[in-house]
Amino acid sequence: MGWQDVKEKFLSLSGEQKSPNCETLENIPTWKTYASIKKATLPAKKQTLSDIVIDNSKNEILAEKISIYIGDITHLEVDAIVNAANKSLLGGGGVDGAIHRGAGKYLLAECKTLGGCETGEAKITGSYQLPSKYIIHTVGPVGEKPGYLRNCYENSLKLALENNLRSIAFPCISTGIYHYPNEAAAHIAAGVVRKKLEEHADKFDRVIFCLFLDIDTNIYESILQSYFPLK
């Protein structure tokens, strides 16, 4: 059986059928709920980047459109998870390696047909054995290159829109071995997501920032108070 047939087989299954212990969207609190629960322990608010202009009339609805999730992105039952891939798309370390291991060998077979991926671009595959439906692979920049990192988030969200995917989870792109400063990267991520949701709130049910390190949790808890204000 080729990867095309296996892909269709897995796309016909729910996330819980593929992975009974997966994390469903219903069990992941929205930012509004999360911030309310943790109100007493949230870190001090940090302001948005100076070039981000927020449409405050949309604050209430957008606070219900995003989430912080602390854990393993491969456990999420969403329409798409984003893979912080390398240019070959053939697997690697960190999140990339975990996604390839979890999805199984047919992911590699499909990725071999894509001809790699340039920095800032994004490409989509099935997710096979993972509870998500699809994987959007994007290649982050090495070092602090805001234009390329912004493209990673914008092109991933563009693919989600083009494929009618209503829920998507992002890891912290480029902040690991690619050495993008964590806080600067988080501002890019939050800013792009904010503006895209202002334009297409009706097209998304949830955008999830999937975090693993305490430093990233602290950063996102502080900056989301400005990018997605609750008052």
UniProtKB/TrEMBL annotation:
Can you provide one Gene Ontology molecular function annotated for this UniProt record? Answer: ADP-ribosylglutamate hydrolase activity
GO cellular component terms attached to this protein's record: nucleoplasm
Pfam families the UniProt entry points to: Macro
Superkingdom, natural source = Eukaryota
| InterPro entries, alphabetized | Macro_dom, Macro_dom-like
Provide one Gene Ontology biological process annotation: peptidyl-glutamate ADP-deribosylation
Tell me the ranges covered by the Macro domain, including all copies.
Answer: 53-228
Put simply, this protein is called Macro domain-containing protein
